[in-house]
Write a structure and sequence with these properties.
This protein is of the alpha/beta class. It contains 26 helices and 24 strands. A 7-stranded parallel β-sheet has the order 1-3-2-4-5-6-12, sandwiched between helices. A 5-stranded antiparallel β-sheet has the order 16-15-19-18-17, with helices on both faces. Strands 20-21-22-24-23 form a 5-stranded mixed β-sheet. Strand 9, helix 9 and strand 10 form a beta-alpha-beta unit. The radius of gyration is 52 Å and the shape is elongated.
């Protein structure tokens, strides 16, 4: 329930006391009639009293909406209008305070919201009498606040716009020599007059201040008439109410604006009545900010903990008609200024007709252009298509690659090129229109069926290795790709092939050479390892025994015995090193105990020799591993683990040997510095080349994953079943 208290307005001094009494009685009666019994209100309902000192109901409604959007509980608003010509009189304020006290004696207030400066001053003055302990959130206060804020009070302070208005006037009138302030001699405008006076002191070296203080009167107009040229007016007289005298503020304003450019900190007073403009705070911001503060107080936040919010942005408003009158260009206005009463230009008046006509012309021109462009584009496309077909036909016929086009539905060849004829031995007229089953080009028919299914599913295939049979019966190996295309609405297969028979033979020969080189290397390693173990190591052991015998002879002094003991120890260490080298060259454990025991033993020896940790794990317990696979696994483990210890900088390493189905996997992992894997793999390091060659000999694959500062992982995968078949075939041969 909202309550609105409107104080009676009158200008007669003789009837002041009777008017005050009538005002008080009306306020009390109006309050009693409009109050809602407390029994009908909800227990959690909050009561807010708004003291309006001049702002309209629009701003108060905005504040209420902002409060309700930030506070979920029910709120009851009551509004008291303080605006009255006699409000400055102490007796009137006392009577009004008594009326408010009588009207709210039985109701608990949760918040008081004074609007404008006069309302804030009234609320602070009568706070202890009317609503002791009730927090105050003020809105749109313009007068300077005290250095120490009153207890229980916070709110929104607005800029007065004095500085901005004076700067605007001097900016638009650079030849100004005097600034005349027209304001009341007393009342709430006094604070503004003092601020105007302080601001003009900043420009005292350029302009002279002239003060015209007092109510609107013919005498005031006489003083205005005496003002010198190049004077700017700061107008601060408020228009009176409906009981205004015959001569009022608007009469003074009309007379002043006829002679001098007039500005005001309240642009709504002068703009539209002959004034040029002025600067003031944005009235739409204050209610929103005040509503947010009020919601925080009603939610239980202590009001003394909420600082005052400053709405310091001043909005400049000017009258476009006065700009033209005083020859002021709009470019001289500050950015963001609001220009009111602008007369529409010829373009603005007939804009929709102009735009409609222009749109029709543009559409017609566009359609005509599109028609010519389409015809030109069609002709160009026809020429390009003819050239493309000719070029394709030439490229197709003379391509160094064998190209064929076959229907996937009827499985018949449609077209082949010259290279296809050379590669297969079949001429074009012999192939065209015939199916594959008639010429039997593919050696493996099952491979062709799988190829067609995969092509229809994926649309294209790459890096296909196909064995074909020439017309003369010769078998050739080809490499190529295939892609689905449309020819006259029918799906066809476009195949491109090249003969790689010689390359495959070279690769097989190279692989055979690599295999023989590795076999020779292993045989040489075995021979050297046996010589080191059976010959060199035995001689070192005999030499050690002989030194021990010489040391036992009598007649040797202590120094010689000490040197001989040191030599014995040194020979023993050399023997151990030779034995370790022998084991690295050829592991007898690999032949006797198998790959798992050999790998575990090697990891333990490497860890002891280099003072690091190597965790070895095996899964699946691989059995019956072919000898060549075991040797490959062991050598790659040696190379990768030694490289990791040498280059990674880590102290912990993981080795895992795992048997999965018909595949055996070896993984070596570290958490060291890592490296740029693509760059290293593209190089020519002998270690990596050796590991790749060994893996390829047993039809395995090796992958290396590494990143700088993220460690390295080397994984070898070898198919056991395939190598068993190969070994069986080799044994049978």
């Amino acid at each position: 329930m909202k309550r609105l208290f409107i104080a009676e307005r009158t200008t007669s001094r003789s009837d002041f006391r009777s008017a005050s009494r009538r005002c008080t009685i009306l306020l009390v009666l109006f309050t009693l009639l409009s109050r809602v019994p407390l029994s009908t209100a909800q227990a959690t309902q909050k009561n807010v009293l708004v003291l309006s000192g001049g702002r309209g109901r629009v701003s108060i409604n905005l504040m209420e909406s902002s409060l309700r959007s930030h506070f979920a509980g029910p709120v009851n608003f009551s509004i008291v209008d303080l605006e009255n010509p006699r409000f400055e009189q102490k007796a009137y304020q006392d009577n009004l305070a008594q009326a408010i006290q009588a009207g709210y004696s039985g109701e608990k207030l949760d918040l008081v919201v004074p609007v404008m400066t006069i309302a804030l001053q009234f609320a602070v003055q009568y706070h202890d009498k009317l609503f002791p302990g009730v927090p105050i959130v003020f809105m749109s206060n313009i007068s300077p606040l005290p250095d120490k804020m009153w207890p229980g009070v916070t709110g929104v302070e607005s800029t007065s716009g004095v500085r901005e208005t004076i700067d605007l006037a001097l900016r638009l009138h650079p030849d100004t020599q005097a600034v005349a302030i027209i304001s009341k001699a007393s009342g709430p405008d006094n604070d503004w007059f003092q601020e105007e006076h302080s601001e003009l002191l900043r420009h005292r070296d350029k302009v002279t201040e002239i003060d015209l203080l007092g109510p609107a009167s013919p005498q005031l107009l006489q003083r205005v008439a005496e003002l010198p040229p190049h004077t700017v007016i700061l107008f601060q007289l408020y228009p009176e109410d409906s009981n205004q005298p015959a001569f009022g503020a608007l009469d003074v304003l009309a007379a002043v604006t006829e002679r001098f450019p007039t500005y005001s900190m309240l642009p709504h007073i002068t703009v539209g009545h002959g004034g040029v403009g002025g600067a003031s705070y944005d009235p739409a911001i204050d209610p929103v900010l005040a509503g947010e503060l009020a919601a925080r107080v009603l939610s239980g936040e202590p009001v003394d903990h909420i600082p005052v919010v400053h709405n310091s942005k001043a909005v400049v408003s000017v009258d476009w008609r006065q700009l033209r009158r005083w020859n002021i260009p709009e470019s001289a206005l500050p950015p963001g200024s609001k220009v009111l009463f602008r007369e529409p230009t010829l373009w603005e008046q007939g804009r929709k007709y102009f735009l409609t006509g222009i749109a029709v012309i543009v559409v017609q021109a566009f359609l005509i252009f599109a028609l010519f462009w389409q015809r030109a584009r069609r002709r160009k496309a026809e020429v390009e298509r003819a050239k493309s077909e000719q070029k394709f036909s030439k490229s197709f016929r003379q391509s160094p690659l064998a190209i064929s086009i076959a229907s996937t539905y009827k499985d018949r060849y449609l077209e082949v090129n010259e290279t296809f004829e050379e590669l297969t031995g079949w001429r074009r007229d012999e192939v065209a229109g015939r199916s594959h089953s008639e010429i039997k080009l593919w050696v493996d028919l099952e491979h062709r069926s799988a190829f067609l299914k995969q092509l229809l599913a994926q649309g294209s295939l790459r890096d296909l290795e196909i064995r074909i049979r020439r017309k003369d019966g010769q078998i050739r190996t080809t490499l190529g790709s295939a892609e689905l295309i449309e020819v006259d609405g029918e799906k066809c297969c476009l195949s491109v092939w090249t003969d790689i028979t010689e390359r495959k033979q070279a690769e097989e020969a190279l692989a055979s050479v690599s295999h023989k080189l590795i076999e020779a290397q292993e045989k040489e390693r075995t021979r050297i390892a046996r010589e080191l173990h059976d010959d060199i190591n035995q001689q070192i052991a005999l030499a050690t025994i002989e030194f021990e015998g010489l040391k036992q002879r009598s007649g040797l002094d202590d120094e010689v015995r000490s040197c001989m003991s040191a030599l014995c120890v040194r020979l023993s260490e050399i023997g151990k090193d030779v034995q370790a080298i022998s084991h690295r060259l050829h592991s007898s454990k690999l032949e006797i105990l198998g790959v798992v025991v050999a790998c575990r033993s090697f990891c333990r020896e490497v860890a002891e020799r280099n003072k690091v940790t190597v965790d070895f794990t095996e899964e699946g317990n691989p059995r019956r591993v072919p000898e060549d696979v075991s040797l490959c696994l062991f050598r790659i483990l040696q190379e990768s683990l030694n490289n990791a210890i040498k280059h990674s900088g880590a102290q912990h390493f993981e080795v895992r040997l795992r048997a999965v189905s018909d595949e055996i996997q070896l993984t070596v992992r570290d958490c060291g510095v890592g490296f740029d894997a693509p760059a290293v793999l593209s190089g020519h390091g002998l270690g990596l080349i050796s590991m790749r060659e060994r893996a390829s000999l047993v039809k395995g694959t090796i992958s290396i994953t590494s990143k700088p500062m993220a460690g390295t992982e080397i994984t070898l995968r070898v198919p056991i079943a395939l190598n068993r078949e190969s070994q069986a075939i080799s044994g049978a041969a």
